[in-house]
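Extended Data, panel c. Modelled sequence:
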Amino acid sequence: MDNLKAIVIGAGMGGLGSAIALKQAGYEVEIYDRVSELRPVGAGISLWSNGVKVLNRLGLGKEIAQIGGQMDVMQYCRHTGELISNIDLAPLVAEVGQRPYPVARADLQAMLMSVYPGEIKLGHTFIGLEQDDHSVTALFENGHTATGDVLVAADGVRSIARKYVLGEAVDPRYGGYVNWNGLVPMSDDLAPKNMWAIYVGEFKRASLMPVAGDRFYFFFDMPMSKESAATGGDIRDDLSRFFAGWADPVQTLIQRLDPKKTNRVLIHDVEPLNGLVRDRVALLGDAAHATCPDLGQGGCQALEDGFVLAHYLMTTNISVVDALKRYETERKERTSAIVTKARSRAEQIHGKDPIATQQWYDQLQHEKPSDVTDAIAKIILRGPMK
């Protein structure tokens, strides 16, 4: 498929990752995004080893290691502070062959933008597309059009392209909880600098993960009806109320965070889709499989998508349509399983069935650390990067 031209809609992690992979394959790429200024959604993200391996394959191993946090240990504590389990991640790294890296989203986006060799065309709101036997054309609100051989729709959880690909609208589903997230300076009164600290209880979570720059990425989870979640109050007041009586590091975190730089997000996912492609159009990332963040696989799956898409476009030469069908076959099974498992995990953590959540708390206390790392490894190793 010489001289292939790809139109990429969306300059998030999936769009940039796929654009870099396609550029490295020798294809012409144009990226469009509706925003006038690129700002990452959310403060941080956990990149498990499968996502890091894709970045390594793209030649970004050194760069991701520089912006990633050194996470050596996972530790679960009760919300009142008592230790539940301490999990050394070295066996996981040994099994899968790569460290995981929690990263600040702004650092990750800046890294991807710095290595993408082309222009990112901002201020272009994607409104639809047309295709024939030979090409596909993206239509934008400002009247601009862009024509290529393949269109990569990485346009997010509320994707415009998804309705076109499926022939029907599939709206995001509320995941049942609200998430607050941000960044704070590292300090020993919060957590050790090489630890992912997780406090659980009352169907809630508070968490700290190390990222580069001597910072922790933090998040809080609070189960809430969609009606109650629709409006939020003062962030510090809300968190102080929702997490009253929690352990001292959690109280310290609430007082130390910057409310103006803390994000409040209603968690949504998209149910597994019947298809991911339509002829020359491929859904990618959240447009294809937005997932609850409870497995830490959302960004990793977007990176896997881009790698697999470029792989089939580069290695099969029947047609673009054939390559995209191969992409769909490989990615649909993988991502549907992740979406389903992450939704189940979210419900288990956040008390949809209070008895099941209590059983999970009990399980945390009694399961072997190897059970935890083996479960994570299984998810990682089912991807395209062994």
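The chain has a mean pLDDT of 95. This feature is highlighted in the accompanying rendering.
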